[in-house]
């Protein structure tokens, strides 16, 4: 395929990764970002073997590992009885896989620094309101109707609230999920915690409290954890009105060991309310625009796949374009490459959510008694590890990737 002029709306992880892959393939790219200064949004996230493989393909594995924190298992217990109800271990699968918890700032800076080093242009302070396709070119407009760019292809990486996908002919129905979470980034130096696990406490499925050790946001910083507490988003204002101390006391009652983290929270402004929605654009392209990341698909975060799926989208899109004779063929190949993997993990996330975020005590009882028992019997541990790793269906071959050699990576780090 000839070299393309590509405009990428959104300078988050998906957009930055796409810019790197496509520029290395010989395309001319520029990023358009609505903020005056690109920056990450949110607290911590868990990079799975899928996302780590994408970063490795970009040559960014050393940089992200220098900041992140290795996670070997996901462990959850009933807050009242102490009974283990979730224990997923990456080493249930052969090969030495693991997760890497990172602060969103660490992932952003790793990708952004690579984009800057490559000299790729980022135009900031520009809000993209709509796109207009004429013949073979697509123009992006700001809210005043002014053209801010004209391209052979536009990549929408603006996230779950994308105006571009909402206005497109493939606009998906959006199902707002009732449950969200308060998140905070807190210090963990000197605070007892399991540094190799995502640790959670539950009261049925109504309460989920978690601690994810995410390493450092920047080189030289102290180590942090992402602390989260799930709730119905409709109840958030009432929780705030009841007072911060009451909220903290409730958590302390469930999980006394969390008090050193709670003591660091002195203002509601330290907490961010995350809201989630379920949506899928089919196909993930239309009228000169291709959608990646949360613009194309989003769901609950129960399986920790969001950023990882976005990075896979970027890799798959670049690979599809490099293998096609025409742009139309490339976009169709991208959609085909990601279809099964996206659908599978959206379905799994949707199915798993009520077991950890719902009002149903029956589902929670089933999780704690039956599911927790079955999960210990092979091949259930291997299946759960593959689900969490994002590899229950192979996402690599059709994205032009070869999975990391995990045991070699471990030896090199040692």
From TrEMBL:
This is FAD-dependent monooxygenase. Its cofactor is FAD. Keywords: FAD, Flavoprotein, Monooxygenase, Oxidoreductase. It comes from Shinella curvata. The keyword Nucleotide-binding does not apply. Residues 5-343 form the FAD-binding domain. GO terms for molecular function: monooxygenase activity.
